[in-house]
Amino acid sequence: MSHRGVHQEIVEGRARSWALAAVSGNVTAVRHPLGFVCLPLERQGGEGVCLHLWSGTLTRAETTTSQIHCHSWDLFSHVLWGQVRNVHAEVTDTGRGATHRVFEVVSTAAGDHISPTGRTVRHSTGLVEVFGPGDSYTLPAGRFHSSVVPEGGEAATIALGRSRPGSRDLSLGPLTGGDHHVSRRPLDAVETAHAVRLIAARLT
């Protein structure tokens, strides 16, 4: 189903039934470097639809930069269950006293190519938004943030993305970090089935 179609399902109160139907077919799942499992469901032009699942019963991928990042696309996120904190980061460009370097992330089917830029910054925690089941929120492209699920908690969201021309995917990383590649590791059949069972059990 398209970005627009899924958004309509959410607005009309059918998010849970739509998500349950979406995982009842043949789905794939990958470990995302930001700590969740991603089930990509639709990609058309500059729009995408995914389910994001955080669970301590699933092996997490490790990030090589940090959890603080910004998207090249506008995000609409709907929480199916659990609690998600959208933690905004106030980023200040600086040379002297910088704590992080900005890295550009270029994603392909083979994974993420992560390149250091000449931009160095320091950051502080800004607005912290807390969302629970049934809540939706938006985040424009280019806004640094992190998505945080309480330690030991479990959560899932429907994530809708719409690319914004001229924007880039960025992440804050170590000052001395270098150019590198990170593969998006798929879950095997057993763990994918486990993820689907988790989703189905929560939604029924």
How would you characterize this protein structure?
The protein has 204 residues and is an alpha+beta fold. It has a single domain (3-203), classed as Jelly Rolls. The chain has helices spanning 3-11, 15-22, 189-203; strands at residues 30-31, 37-44, 47-54, 69-70, 73-81, 84-93, 100-108, 111-131, 136-139, 145-148, 155-163, 170-173, 180-182. It is globular.
The radius of gyration computed from the alpha-carbon positions, rounded to a whole number of angstroms, is: 17 Å
Number of strand elements: 13
- Mean pLDDT comes to 95
Task: Assign the CATH class.
Answer: Mainly Beta
Number of helices: 3
Main sheet record: 7 strands, antiparallel
Q: What fold name stands as the CATH topology?
A: Jelly Rolls
Distance between the termini: 21 Å
Quickly give the structural class. Answer: alpha+beta
Order of H and E elements: HHEEEEEEEEEEEEEH
* Gross morphology: globular
Q: Which CATH-level-2 architecture?
A: Sandwich
Features:
204 residues, alpha+beta, Jelly Rolls, seven-stranded antiparallel β-sheet, six-stranded antiparallel β-sheet, 3 helices, 16% helix
